[in-house]
Design goal:
19% of the residues lie in helices and 32% in strands. With 268 residues, the chain is α/β, with parallel strands linked by helices. It folds into 2 domains: 13-95, Translation factors (Elongation Factor Tu (Ef-tu), domain 3, Beta Barrel); 101-263, Rossmann fold, CATH 3.40.50. A 7-stranded mixed β-sheet has the order 10-9-8-7-11-12-15, sandwiched between helices. Strands 1-2-5-4-3-6 form a 6-stranded antiparallel beta barrel. Helix 2 (118-130) crosses helix 3 (153-162). Bound molecules: flavin-adenine dinucleotide and FE2/S2 (inorganic) cluster. Flavin-adenine dinucleotide binds next to strand 4, strand 5 and helix 1. FE2/S2 (inorganic) cluster binds next to loops.
Length: 268
Amino acid sequence: MAKEVTKNEYVPFLSEIKEVIKHTDIEYTFRMTYEGDVKPGQFFEVSIPKYGEAPISVSGIKDGLIDLTIRRVGKVTNEVFEHYEGDKLFLRGPYGNGFDVEEYKDKELVVVAGGTGVSPVRGVIQYFADHDNQRKDMTIITGFKSDKDILFKKDFEYWRQKMNVILTLDAGIETKDHKIGLVTQYIPDLKLADVEKAVAIVVGPPAMMRFSVKALLERGFKEENIWISQERKMCCGIGKCGHCRIGDKYVCLDGPVFNYTQGKNLVD
Ligand SMILES: Cc1cc2nc3c(=O)[nH]c(=O)nc-3n(C[C@H](O)[C@H](O)[C@H](O)COP(=O)(O)OP(=O)(O)OC[C@H]3O[C@@H](n4cnc5c(N)ncnc54)[C@H](O)[C@@H]3O)c2cc1C
Ligand code: FES
């Protein structure tokens, strides 16, 4: 009888960098080769031998390619920024549940995202920009620190043609393209035909998520129609090490995308 070989889930594969898109001095999108099923909001563990691994969300999916939008913050991500088009990086994944566009079809949709929080949800925005017949009205409220910190500037030009876009900066001078202030201040005035059926997705730093969800609930959104994506410190990414566990939930397996009815205890 043939001996059964157990697949080692920790073994990464090599993926080639096809393009590097520079958004800011410390945030680049690495367009990488990947053949297989993947959803927006899922993540890959990017690894560099001797440096370690970092979980990074999928910010775009197209024709055998995935986008990983990475902020340079430390050991692994600094080293990733030393790589260029044609180089290869090790990846494991995709992991986590990701966003399921089926949940949002034929609904009024609001996306609230801050900073690199736009990355995991970019695929959902792009999907409903391309398929506007599969949804009702859509509004995105995105916040960045300053003009220099805006990610996906080119996408915003397209999204503006397809949906209501509110882009706000923490500081600076208001222009026709952006407002000044926090994302939360635009939630009370959201124009919605039926708030009880409208769906909201919230992704960003913990304080932004907490106050955005509070404002959405006050605006009349139902808890079960709010979706959040959580970033927790992770290690294995596959439910074995327990690093990401909160109560009975493993963020790497059960998340990082949660319905707020389940995810409310996970918001910091
Ligand atoms: C599910 C998930 C998805 C993520 N998606 C992205 C993404 O799309 N793009 C991106 O740039 N980053 C993303 N992150 C965060 C990213 O994984 C960390 O910034 C990265 O692991 C840092 O690794 P490093 O070795 O470069 O930094 P380190 O040298 O390990 O740390 C540098 C600094 O970053 C902090 N840090 C480390 N890990 C995290 C974390 N998970 N969350 C917040 N702060 C952290 C450390 O406390 C330290 O202050 C994601 C994290 C998770 C859990
Ligand atoms: S990261 Fe190891 S269990 Fe989730």
